[in-house]
Design goal:
The complex is a heterodimer of chains A (268) and B (577). Chain A has five helices and ten strands. Chain A has 268 residues and is of the alpha+beta class. The relative contact order of chain A is 0.14. Chain B folds into three domains: 232 residues, Cytochrome c oxidase-like, subunit I domain (Cytochrome C Oxidase, Chain A), CATH 1.20.210; 235 residues, Cytochrome C Oxidase, Chain A (Up-down Bundle), CATH 1.20.210; 57 residues, no CATH class. The radius of gyration of chain B is 24 Å and the shape is globular. The two termini of chain B are 21 Å apart. Classes of the chains: A alpha+beta (268), B mainly alpha (577).
Amino acid sequence: MGLALLVVIWLITFASTYFFAAKTWWLPAGAAVAAHGIDQQFANSYILMGIVFVAAQCSLGYVAWRYRDRAGAPSAAYSHGNTRLEIIWTTLTAILFIGMNLVGSPIWAAERFEPAQSAALPVEVTGMQFAWYFRYAGPDGKFGPTSPKLMDPSSGNEAAIGLDTSDPASKDDVVTGTMFLPVNRQIDLTLRAVDVIHSFFVPSLRFKQDAVPGLAIHMHFTPNQIGDYEIACAELCGLGHYKMHGMVKVVSPEDFDKWLAAREAEKQ
Amino acid sequence: MATSEVVHAHAAPQGFVRKYIFSLDHKVIGIQYFFLALTAVWVGMILSLLMRIHLIWPSAVLPLVGEIKPETYLGLLTMHGTIMVFFVLTTAPQGGFGNYFLPIQIGAPDMAFPVLNMLSFWTTFVAFVVMLAAFFVTGGAPLHGWTGYAPLSAVPSTGPGEGLGADLWITSIAIFCAASLMGALNFLTTTLDMRAKGMSLFRMPLTVWSWFITAILGLLAFGVLLSAGILLLMDRNLGTSFYVPLVVVNGQVMGHKGGSPLLWQHLFWFFGHPEVYIAILPGMGVTSQVLSTFARKPIFGYRAMVYAMLAIGFLGFMVWGHHMFMSGMSPYSAFAFSLLTMAIGVPSAIKTFNWIGTLWHGKIRFYTPMLFAIGFVSLFVSGGLSGPFLAQPTLDIQLHDTYFVVGHFHLIMGVAAIFGIFAATYYWVPKMFGRMMNETLGKIHFWFTLIGAYAIFMPMHYLGMAGHPRRYSQLTEVAYLHRLLPVQQFMTYAAFITIGAQLIFVVNLFWTIFKGPKAVDNPWEATTLEWTTATPPPHDNFAGHTPVVYHSAYEYSVPGAPKDFIMQNDPATTPAH
C-alpha cells in the first residue's frame, strides 16, 4: 500500500506538472505593455511553487512508502519534534512568500497606483445585461452627460447608455458595441455599469476590472500589438453572463483616426 | 483499566422521540448532523453533475430534469455552492464529528448546553429545508452564485430566480447563521469549562483544538453574515438601499439610490474567508490525529501545530480583501491584503512540514482512515500552492474569477476538507456505531476518490490560465474557449466516475451500521479518551465516571512502555514528559 501511494502521488504530481511545464494551456500571447511584467511574475511564481509542489508531494509519497509497517521494521521513533527545524522552515517559507509578494508588487503599483497620462485616449466602457458599450468623447474631448431615465437598452449604442443628446457636449460623442483602439497609445478607461456588476476582462491585453453600478472606475492600459481580442465578462451578471462577449480591435493610429472620423460623419 | 472519579450520572432518556429525534445527547445530535450532511452532499454532488452535463452537452434533455437552460445552470451553481459550503463543509466536520467527539475527547459527559445543542441542530435542519424550497418556487433557484453579489442578488428583476427563490436562499443562510452561533457558543464553553482533571489545554487532542478554533471563527464570522443577510433582505423587500445605488435594469429605473455594491462584498468576505478555515481546520485536526495514530508516532511539533492553527484563524480575519482585488476597491489596500494573505502560507507550510515529519521514521499502518489522511496532506499541498498565485493582485489581473480560482478552492476547501471528513468517518464509525467498516471497500473508495478528485480539479487550473471565466453555462459564445471544450469533457467524465465511486462509500457505511463485524473498544490502538470508553459510548460517555488525564494526547512508541501506545488516562505508565 505504501508503494502504491508513492507511485500514485508521484504520477499525479508529474502529470500535473507536465501540463504546466509544456504550456499546453498557457496564458494567451500578451498584446499590451503590462503583459511582459505580469507574465514574468507568473512564470517566477510558477517555478517557485512548482519546486515546492514537487518536493512536498514526492517527500510525502516517499515517507509513506519508506516508513510502512512491515516484517522486521524497527519501532517508530519516539520524538515530539525539533524546534530548530521548525524555526528553519518557518523562516524559509516566510522569506519565500513575503519575497514573492514584494517582487510582484511594483507591477501592480505601475498598473493601478499611477493615473493615466494626459496624452492617453479617454474611452468610457459601460456594462449592462448583457452587452458592452464604448464611448469616445469626439473632437471636443468631453463626454456628454447621460441620464438613467433615457436609457433604452433595446435601441442600442447612444440610447442604451442614456446619452443626453440635447447637451452640446454629447453631439460628437461616439458610442459603439465594438471597441476600437489605436496601438501603442495609452488608453484612459472609465468603467461603469448600469444594472449589476460586470467585469471587463480581455485576457490577451492582461486587463480585468469590475464595472460597478454607482462607481466610475478609472484604469489605464496600453495595447502594443495590432489585432482582434475577445472581451469576456468575468463577473456573474445573470443568465446571459456566458454570452456577454465583445471585441477589442487594436488598429494603427491612422486606421483609428479614419474609423473615428467615419463614425463622426455618420452622426452628422 | 484506568482510575476515574465517580460523578453524578444523568438518567438516559426513554422513548423513541426523546432518544433519537429531539435528543439532548451530543452523540445523537452529532449523528443527526452527520446524516444531514450526507444527504446534503448527495444533493450538492448531483447538482454539480447536472452542471457538468450541461457544459459539454448543452442541449441534452434529461429524465426528471428536462432541458437545462442557462438560468437553470446558474441556479444549480448557486445551490451547489451554498449547499456544499454550509450544509456539508460546515455541518459534517464541526456539527457532526465535533459534536460527537469533542466532549468525549476532553472527558465530559455532554456539551455544556444540551438544549441549545438540540436547538442548533434543528435550526440547521430548518435552514436546509428552506434552502431546498428555493428549487420549487416560481422562477426557481437564484442565479447569483453562492457569493450573492449585489445588486444581482438585491434586485428581483435582474433575472429568473431572483424573486422568491432568492428570498428563500438568503433566509435559509440567515437561519443557518443563527444555528451556527448557538453551536459555536456551546463548543467554546464546553472546551473551556468541562475538561476532565488533568486535561490541560496542551494535552488536548489536536482535533479538539481544531474544533475550538473553528468555533471562535464561527462566533465572529456568522454574526457578520447574519447581519449582512438581514440588510440584503431589507434591500429586497423593504426598499432600503444598503447595497444598491441607482440602477437601471432592462431600461427600468429602480427605486434605490446611494447604496454600495462593495459593502456587500466586504461583509460577505469578512465572513467568507474565515469560512474557508471553518471548513478546513477540523480536517487538519483529524489528519493530525489519524497520522499520529497510524504512524505510531507522537505528532511532530504539537505546539507548533496549535500555534499554526491559531495563526491561520487569526490571519484569516484580515485577508478578506484578496477576494476583491478587481472589485474597484482601493488598489493600495490590495497591497496590504496581499501581504497578509501570503503570510498565511507560513503556518500552512508549518502544518505540512509537521505532518510529513510525523510520518518520518514512523511505522505506518495503512488502514483506510490513514489513506484519507495522507490524501488530505497531498490535496492540501496541491490546493494550497495555487493560493500564492491568487494572493498576488498582479496575477489576479489574469486569474481572478477564472477556473483557476475554482480549481484552487475545490482542491483545498472542497476535496481536502472532504478527505478530512472521510478520514474521520472511517476512523470513528467503529466507535459511533460499534462496527468496523469494510477495509477492501474503503481502499477501493479511496483510490477512486483520490485519482478522481485530481482528474476533475487539476485541469481547472489550466483552463483558468487560458482565460476561461467561471460561471459560464456554455463555451459556445466566446471563440477562444472552443479549444478548451475537450478539457471540460475530460472533467465531466472524471466527475461521473468519481461520483459513482461514492456509492461504494454509502454501501460500506450502511452495511457497516447494520451488519458490520463488531468493533472492540480501541480497534486502532489509539490514545485519546474516546477509545477508553465502551463502544458505542454509554449515554453519559464514561458510565458514571469522569476520566483523569495523565498524558499528552499522542504518546506512541514510548521507549520502555509495555505497548506502543499510552492512553491519556493511563496512570500506571510513567510519562516521558
